Amino acid sequence: MISTDREVFKEGSAVRERLVALGDLVDQLDVIVFSLKKNNFKQFKVSAKVTVYPTNNLSRLTYISSAFWLGKKIGRPTLITCQDPFETGLAGWLLAQWFRTGLELQIHTDFLAPAFRRESGLNRLRHNLGRLLLSEASHTRVVSERIKNSLINNKIVLAKPVLVLPIFTEATKFSQPIKIDLHQQYSQFKQIILVASRLTREKQIDLAIKALAVALKTNPDLGLVIAGTGPLEGELKALARQLGVESKVIFAGWIADLTDLYRTADLFLLTSAYEGYGLTLLEASFAGLPIVATDVGVASEVGAAIVKPEPAALAAAMIKELNSREIKAPTNLPMVSKSEYLAAISHAWHDDVSFNRGGKVKRFFKYLIAGGSAAVLDLFLLHVFTDWVGIWYLYSAIWAFLVALVVSFILQKFWVFRDHSLKTVHIQAVMHSGLGIFNTLANTVLMYLLVDGAGIHYLIAQVIGGAIIAVFNFFIYRGVIFKNGR
């Protein structure tokens, strides 16, 4: 398993408990977690069957390569499962190619949503990488019907039908005695609105604060409790001060168990730009809490009041729900019990054991041979033209590059991807040449980031950059330029 969830390093966390349960499904579960060296995480055993390995990188840029080498060191797995189809998915795909084993990709967020792509340049790269990697997975597991439908609507080609498996929730905890009462803690508020979220850009917590400022004009006794931490905490506190609602907004920090907060608040508010599932929505529904939310995750399925992501609209919906206290009875809740969750994963994992990656692995290594042969030819011709024929080295470099480019195109088209059609060969040749130019620019940028940004030796940086570009090119060749190959 390859993961980014560093909560596993916290004693008693829900992540650890879940890994112990998953470990009982298999003979051995090795978990590689992306982490930075400054966090000082150590390898440790969660249980007799589960071992956690931190990557301990100096830079996030080397997460993927470190996970790959760690995976090789651990040894051949029966199956590789990755927390997302992005960085962990790429590391998993490389290991699946190396070991010729099955690959499960999990999707926890709606990365095909326009809001996801608009958020950052990195997310645009993740969007494209995810589309490419999903076609290579032996199976895909998603947390909601929303994500499944998003994959279908975007015509993502998958090896098997999508497995929809919501995150399991133990409903029994909502019947336990209340230990934390928000109204006792914050008695200055007559009605309390709860937000439980990471304080990151996509969660749009600024909308919640702005909506509160609007609602306070007619309901001055409202209070907003924000449970969660994140990089935007300082920015959000400054916004509350700027709007004059600092005394009405409580930043409660990270709280491990939110059960009592759901049970003693008056309204739950979710303002995310996108969600794959939204476990907090389900938990708030279990607690009988009215919900106002943007149209994301399972909001409509739990009976939330769906509102546009605008402060005035959110404020109006909040006041309406607080005044009515009418709870919409959820129907067909997207939930499973712990036993159902584990049974579904066990079936998917054991079914994947028989997945045959032989053809794909063979093609990938043919691709590496073709690319390597063209690179060797380029160097050889540069030497011949310069030292034997006596051509000026810059002219030699141009001619050697052009010949190698043609040879590479022929090998990739006819031998690696077995695309024998000549109908669009001129278009493919132009795309192949354009990709070569792009690779030159991309290699330059990667070298700068790795050497000057991350402090990596230039030769190691060239190997890493070359590997990233090679993998990227493989997907472009297979999915775009030579997509009609056999």
What does this protein look like?
The chain is of the alpha/beta class. The protein folds into three domains: 2-168 and 340-352, Glycogen Phosphorylase B (Rossmann fold, 3-Layer(aba) Sandwich); 171-324, Rossmann fold (3-Layer(aba) Sandwich); 358-481. The chain is 49% helix and 12% strand. The protein has 17 helices and 14 strands. The chain has helices at residues 14-23, 63-74, 87-99, 114-119, 121-134, 145-153, 182-185, 205-215, 233-242, 259-264, 279-286, 311-324, 338-352, 358-388, 393-416, 425-453, 458-481, and strands spanning 2-3, 29-33, 44-45, 50-54, 79-82, 102-107, 139-142, 163-164, 191-196, 222-227, 249-253, 267-270, 291-293, 305-306. The strands form three sheets. It has a six-stranded parallel β-sheet, with helices on both faces. The protein has a four-stranded mixed β-sheet with strand order 1-2-4-3, sandwiched between helices. A four-stranded parallel β-sheet has the order 5-6-7-8, with helices on both faces. Helix 8 (205-215) links the parallel strand 9 and strand 10 (222-227). Helix 3 runs parallel beside helix 5 (121-134) and helix 8 (205-215) crosses helix 12. It is elongated. The model has no long low-confidence stretch (mean pLDDT 86).
